[in-house]
């Protein structure tokens, strides 16, 4: 492992010594600013279990682990910047933080505004249904009908997937998952569509009200760090770091903990 990180630090030095195409030699990269400042500012939004607050109000989750390990390996402090999801890209571009590490999937629309690192995970879109309200729904195509209401979080991959798959249904948008889930629990919506594993977790928690009838996920997209366009030096550092921790097995270990176990549930309940 020491050899791997020695190679990483050497690569980091090379990044700062060779200007990238599209970035002038006298223009400081985001990564150079991070090292000089001694702080990595990470923009994110709450998505269970990617990022959420524990009983003491501290942010925990898969994304938080990733951000903490990245800052540690770079030898800088971590500053978490909670941001509303629908404004997170404009906030990045205005300089409010250095990078988005917030379960952001790569989409053609987002590629027009930011550059992405190589993927460090994948987002799966899933859904859960109100058991009583969806009694007549036997196949996923039944959700694509007038009179069906689907609760989603604004600006998410899940919202885009729901709009594409269920154009005849009514999409009810929320700024957070919690009120979207409550919409289904109360019977005001037939289904809640979100990134996995949240729909499955909510179904386990409210098994008397919610049900998952369909095993196949609705969509899968790669998740990556987002940075301002043109800063290829910073992308090079992030890409190299993701490859290292993936090969080390650390990323898979964190995925197993947050997405394939409930060991963390006691930290928030």
Description:
InterPro entries: Iontro_rcpt_C, SBP_3_CS, Solute-binding_3/MltF_N. It is found in: Cell envelope. One of its GO terms (molecular function) is ligand-gated monoatomic ion channel activity. This protein is an alpha/beta fold and 269 residues long. 37% of the residues lie in helices and 21% in strands. It contains 10 helices and 13 strands. It has helices at 2-17, 30-37, 62-74, 88-93, 108-111, 157-165, 177-185, 198-205, 232-248, 250-259, and strands at residues 39-44, 52-53, 59-60, 77-82, 99-100, 114-116, 121-130, 149-153, 170-174, 191-195, 210-211, 219-223, 226-228. The strands form 4 sheets. Strands 7, 8, 9, 10, 11 and 12 form a 6-stranded mixed beta sheet that branches. A 3-stranded parallel beta sheet has the order 4-1-5. The protein has a two-stranded antiparallel ribbon with strand order 2-3. Strand 2 (52-53) and strand 3 (59-60) form a beta hairpin. Helix 1 (2-17) packs antiparallel against helix 9 (232-248). The protein starts with a helix and ends in a 10-residue tail after the last helix. The model is unreliable at 1-7 and 9-25 (pLDDT under 50).
């Amino acid at each position: 492992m020491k050899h791997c990180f020695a190679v990483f630090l050497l690569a980091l030095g090379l990044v700062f010594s060779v200007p990238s195409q599209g970035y002038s030699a006298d223009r400081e990269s985001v990564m150079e600013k991070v090292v000089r400042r001694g702080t990595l500012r990470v923009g994110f939004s709450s998505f269970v279990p990617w990022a959420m607050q524990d009983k003491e109000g501290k942010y925990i989750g898969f994304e938080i682990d990733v951000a903490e390990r990245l800052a540690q390996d770079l030898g800088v402090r971590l500053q978490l910047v909670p941001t509303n999801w629908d404004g997170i890209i404009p906030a990045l571009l205005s300089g409010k933080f250095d990078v988005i590490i917030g379960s952001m999937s790569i989409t053609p629309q987002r590629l027009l505004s930011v550059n992405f690192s190589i993927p460090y995970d994948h987002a799966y879109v899933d859904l859960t249904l109100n058991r009583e309200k969806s009694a007549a729904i036997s196949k996923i195509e039944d959700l694509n009908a007038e009179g069906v209401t689907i609760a989603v979080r604004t600006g998410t991959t899940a919202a885009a997937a729901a709009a594409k798959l269920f154009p005849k249904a009514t999409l009810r948008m929320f700024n957070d998952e919690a009120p979207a889930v409550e919409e289904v629990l109360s019977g005001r919506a037939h289904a809640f569509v979100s990134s996995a594993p949240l729909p499955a977790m909510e179904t386990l928690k409210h098994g008397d009200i919610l049900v998952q009838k369909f095993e196949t996920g609705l969509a899968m997209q790669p998740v990556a760090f987002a940075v301002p366009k043109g800063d290829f030096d910073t992308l090079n550092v992030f890409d190299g770091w993701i490859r290292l921790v993936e090969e080390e097995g650390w990323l898979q270990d964190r995925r197993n903990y947050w997405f394939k176990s409930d060991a963390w549930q006691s930290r928030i309940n």
